[in-house]
Amino acid sequence: MSSNKKIYFASDFHLGIPDEASSFDREKRIIRWLDFIKPTCEELYIVGDIFDFWFEYNLVVPKGFVRLQAKIAEFTDAGIPIHFFHGNHDLWQFGYFEKELGVKVYSKPITRIFGNKKFFIGHGDGLGPGQHKFKLVLATYRNPFFQRLFAFLHPSVGMGFANWLSQRSKLKTFDGNFTFYGEKEHLIQFCRSTLAKEHFDFFVFGHRHLPMSFKLNDSSTYYNLGDWIGFNSYAEFDGTNLVLKTFEATNNENPIPNI
Description:
Elements: E1 6-10, H1 20-37, E2 41-46, H2 66-77, E3 82-85, H3 96-101, E4 104-106, E5 110-114, E6 117-122, H4 132-142, H5 144-151, H6 155-167, H7 186-195, E7 202-205, E8 212-217, E9 220-224, E10 233-237, E11 242-246
Parallel strand pairs: 1-2, 2-3, 3-4, 6-7, 7-9
Antiparallel strand pairs: 1-10, 5-6, 8-9, 10-11
C-alpha cells in the first residue's frame, strides 16, 4: 500500500427502498462519504446489495442512481480501483458497470493480500451451513435460464414487479434491532470452517446488516460492514489495522454494537 493511503469497504446501500425520497437522501449521503474518503482512498470495495434491485437488459438499465454512478466513474477515471460484488439483491449485473464505470465486478468471494495481511472478502449470502430455502432461491436467481426468462419481460413489467417485491422487504421497516446469534451465526461458522483449512487475518462480509467485529482466534477476525439504512457503517484499513467506522453519525442513528 502507498504511504498515507487506505483501503475502504462498505456494503448494503440498498438504494431504491423504502421510498424514492429516502433512497435519494441516502444516495447523497453516500456521495458525501465518497468525497470524504477520496483523498486517502487507494482502493474501494463495495461488497454487495448496492441496489435493492438491479437487472440489466441488453439495452436497458434501471432508472435512477445516476449521482452514485457518476461519482464511481470519477473515482475510476482518477485511477482509484473500485470493486463491486454481487449481492443477493443486485446479482443481475451483466457488464454495464465494467464497461461504463470501469469497475471490477465479482460474483463470488475473493482473497487479497494487502501488506502482510490476508483478506477473505465477499457479500456473504449463502455462506455457511443450513439456509436451504435461501440457497435454493439464490441458485434460481443465478441460473442463466431463469435470467433469460426474466429478460423476456418488458422492462416496465419486470422492474415494476421487482419494485413491488422491494416494497414488501423487511428492510422497509428497518429499526436496527438485528439479533446477534454468536457462534450460531452462519458467517461465523463459515469463517471457522475456512480457518480449519487456510489462515486469513480478516474476513470481510456484508449481507448481515449488523456492523460487528468478532475475534475468531488470536490472529483472525470476522468483520461485518453493516449497512447504510440504519448505521452508515464502513471499514477502513491503514495497512495494519482494520477499523469499523460510521459516517455523519448522530444521536438519532444506531451506534455500532459492541460485540
